[in-house]
Design a protein that fits this description.
The chain is mostly helical. 58% of the residues lie in helices and 7% in strands. The strands form two sheets. It has a three-stranded antiparallel β-sheet.
């Protein structure tokens, strides 16, 4: 009997698809095929066998999967020995059992095609992968079990990662693995259910208060620091409109419609219709000289963040921020000045916080940011002190307003005119 039949006779004892393999073996055993391993019919039968194996490679039973993997690879190796057809085995090598690295490469390529994907998202997943392989360079799906997840958590702690980062990286890993599972691969029991048991304190939300924002907006930079003025303008435009960096960089003249921004967000594909306030209009007019495809000459995200730190330092945005976090079981607290950590995303938080502090309803704010519910916007809402102070100030001013209104009701037209003229001089 031919070598190919012999291989499969010794490899299929526990496979759940023996009847299919037996059918192929019967064809290969026909007299017309024996003795000529280079005939087209013989080659076609082997290819048919490969197609059948390829469609069954990701069975849920790991034992069956291992058996079929061995069959598959043996069939590919046999084809390589056939002079006429060996060169056509590349596609089968690629379609066969892939390493976790191969699957991750597919993930990056296919997720981009599926939408709701950005360069920043790709960077974060690549960072997660770098850390995973830093822990175990030979990691594979069949070795990534619950015990490995525990060991990975301990690796993060040993390498001085803070708990907040560890939890975030595990979320990224499980997001990738859920995609892997949806695409037919076997995930070991307990992996997707694993949650690091680590103490995490929510990160303090950083933003500019209204007075700080307007100070930053009006700050005059030296002529030799024009790049800082541009960086400040980009930040303030985002703070006046709620835009993310990705949307700012992609904003085109066609998105300006009768005092509104009409566009689909790059990150979530939300269709937004945002009214432009006077401050945002001023920035657009300031850059009317720019004739590129976009409205603004926006630098890269990294450069803009670097410039913002320098710009904020010159503008003396020195309010101190305190961040408390844990590394393993050890509590840490860092204090720094706002300019030291300012980034593009602080602008979006600034829009939310200042809008709420100014009394703009949360529903209106959410229509600008694209948040679908209050819970999803909660991380941005850290303005209790600012909002409370503005609202409680009404207790102080109401006594004067009510007294003025009461007196005005007793005044004649001439007295009201005199009062109006006086108010104009002091208001």
């Amino acid at each position: 009997m031919h070598e190919f039949v012999h291989i499969f006779q010794h490899s299929t004892d526990t496979s759940p698809i023996n009847h299919e393999i037996d059918a192929f073996m019967a064809q290969l055993s026909l007299g017309s095929f024996v003795g000529d391993s280079e005939t087209q019919p013989f080659f076609d039968v082997i290819y048919s066998m490969l197609e059948m194996l390829d469609s069954n490679l990701n069975l849920k039973n790991p034992k069956d999967t291992k058996n079929l993997e061995r069959l598959y690879l043996e069939a590919v190796e046999l084809l390589k020995k056939m002079p006429k057809y060996g060169g056509r085995t590349e596609e089968w090598t690629l379609r066969g059992f892939k390493t976790l690295k191969d699957i991750f490469s597919d993930f990056l390529r296919l997720r981009l095609q599926e939408g709701n994907w950005s360069q920043n998202a790709q960077y974060k997943y690549e960072q997660m992968w770098h850390q995973l392989t830093g822990y175990d360079p030979k990691i594979e799906l069949d070795t990534l079990n619950k015990d490995k997840m525990v060991q990975l958590m301990n690796w993060y702690i040993k390498n001085n990662y803070c708990n907040r980062t560890i939890v975030k990286q595990f979320k990224m890993l499980k997001s990738f693995l859920r995609w892997v599972s949806r695409n037919g691969y076997v995930i070991q029991p307990g992996v997707l259910e694993f949650k690091p048991k680590l103490k995490v304190i929510p990160k303090a939300v950083t933003f500019l208060k209204y007075k700080e924002l307007m100070h930053f907006f009006h700050y005059e930079y030296p002529k030799e620091k024009e790049h800082l003025s541009k960086a400040r303008d980009m930040f303030c435009f985002m703070a006046f409109t709620s835009l993310r960096y990705s949307d700012l960089a992609a904003l085109k003249p066609v998105n300006l419609v009768d005092g509104y921004l009409d566009f689909c967000t790059e990150k979530t594909d939300d269709k937004l219709h945002i009214a432009l306030n006077e401050h945002a209009q001023q920035i657009i007019e300031k850059y009317s000289w720019y004739k590129g495809d976009t409205i603004f000459p926006v630098p890269s995200n990294q450069k803009l963040n670097d410039y913002l730190k320098e710009a904020a330092k010159l503008a003396e945005l020195d309010r101190e921020i305190s961040q408390v976090y844990f590394k393993g079981n050890t509590r840490h607290e860092d204090t720094y000045k706002f300019w030291e950590q300012i980034s593009c995303h602080d602008a979006r938080r600034t829009f939310v916080c200042c809008s709420l502090a100014l009394g703009i309803p949360a529903s209106v704010v959410m229509s600008c940011t694209g948040h679908s519910d209050y819970e999803s916007m909660k991380p941005y809402i850290e303005v209790a002190d600012e909002t409370q102070k503005m609202q409680m100030e009404k207790w102080n001013t109401h006594q004067y307003k009510s007294g003025i209104i009461e007196s005005m009701e007793k005044m004649t037209s001439e007295q009201l005119k005199q009062l109006f003229e006086y108010v104009k001089t002091i208001a």
